[in-house]
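Same chain as my last thread, 564 residues:
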Amino acid sequence: MAQPPQKPSRPAAPSKSQGPTKRPVRPDKPGGAVAANQQKMRDKARQSNDAEDDEEEYDEEEGVMGEWLRQSPSWLASMVFHMILLLVLALWTLPLDGDDKEKPITFNPPEIVDDEELEEEDDADLEEDITATEVVEEVVSPQDFEVESPEVEIDNDNTEQELAAAEIEFNDFATEAATSGLSDTIGGFSASGLGGSRTRGRAGAAGRGGSKGSEDAVEAALRWLADHQNRNGSWSWNHTAGDKCSGYANPGDKKSKMGATGIALMPFLGAGYTHQDGKYKETVRKGVKYLVGNMIVANNAGRLFEADGAGHEHMYCHGLAACALADAYGKTNDHSLQAPAQLALNYIVQAQHPENGGWLYTPRAGGDTSVVGWQVMALKSGILSHLNVPGKVKPLANKWLDIVQSGVPENAYDIGGFYGYRKPGDRPNASATSAIGILCRNYLGARKDDPGLRSGVEAIGAKGPHKGDMYYNYYASQVMYQNDGPKGKLWTKWNNVMRDQLVNTQVKNGKDRGSWYFTSGGHGSKAGGRVYCTSMAAMTLEVYYRYMPIYQQKNVEKDDFPLE
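reply #2:
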């Protein structure tokens, strides 16, 4: 039975790819059945394609570009896409001009900062603060420099009056410097040979001769010194007018701030306070920063004294400051101090007289035992801090001591027990210069049981401490401790007098509480004033932990100067 003709369905709207719509084929026409089936199949395929085209069709607003991309090869479309992406990125990174453009965010410090916050910030950027801008870190060996200071002619036939004047100049500064540089070197505080822990080093003080009274005296002295630090981090012998320390009693008549800063830093470092540790770290930080900031790093690289200062003060001041820098570096291993400390030692090496081995007020000018003593101590402190000191320094320094020594007994190892200022016998046997000479022999490797050395130690022990001459007392205390401490009879007798004498003479009340001033201390007290006397006395009371006995077996190798 023939099916009735079906009503043709409404043709779908032509798509853009479809072309003109054809009329449907009627099956009742000749050949219409076959044609109708073919037409149905074509319509079905066309409807399927139209559905897919509708899903992917771009909006009319995309225009010709969208149609072009659809009909283009895939590689061409990819290239266009990446070109557009590169243009967008390039525009993104271009700087924006004009005030209305976005600018980087910056954080400004608050206008008001609490003291505690300021201290934390200072500690954080200490490395930048205390590093001289022109100092390079890789300074490992002494460098030649041009000596600007005029040479001084030395007359070893000076009259007694001239020698007395020379001794006065010596007392001004050498007192402290000589051994101050050794600071904890031989004893107890850091990672390098200078020891590290304040509490560990000081805990055994009583067993070596200290007492609660002596430790309290040290702390009181440090408080007084901290109160007398200038705003720029320096100290001054003459109590700088208008600064924190002005108006205090007993100023000295010397003006070098480099020397005063070096001597004032020594007691803090000796007690284990550094720029990284302890309640006085800000005080020490400012002092070290002052020294490094005022170091000469161009010609005469490493120089630590004022060019316009008195000529006879130059090498004294340099040695004091060099000791402080070497100690500060050795106690902390702070790499920002390595180059300044090494340069300071380089200057000392180059300043040594190439023939007699001595040091005088200006570089290579001659020698006197006062200056020699504390240059040796500064170099020794540097060696224990793992800084570089050439081996030639040791035999030359011993040569100077040979020149000025006396009292060489038979069967001794060519070492005397007494040392003059510029020639043998120009000072009493048990004098300050003898104490310095013996201490230098100790640190240069002389045998403790040498008959000549022992005779000098016994003479100092028999004389005993002076009532006010801290220059002599300081060096002699080191000699007695190194050669007879901490249990020997000579040391015990000496220490009982020296320790109690200092504890009892310290100011106990008023604004000068914690300080010392000795009217019978010779010209040293007048020249350095209360800053000098207080620093020297405090360091003498630190002998129990500041200087580990060098003759202990474990110290023999590390304490010896290197040989060429």
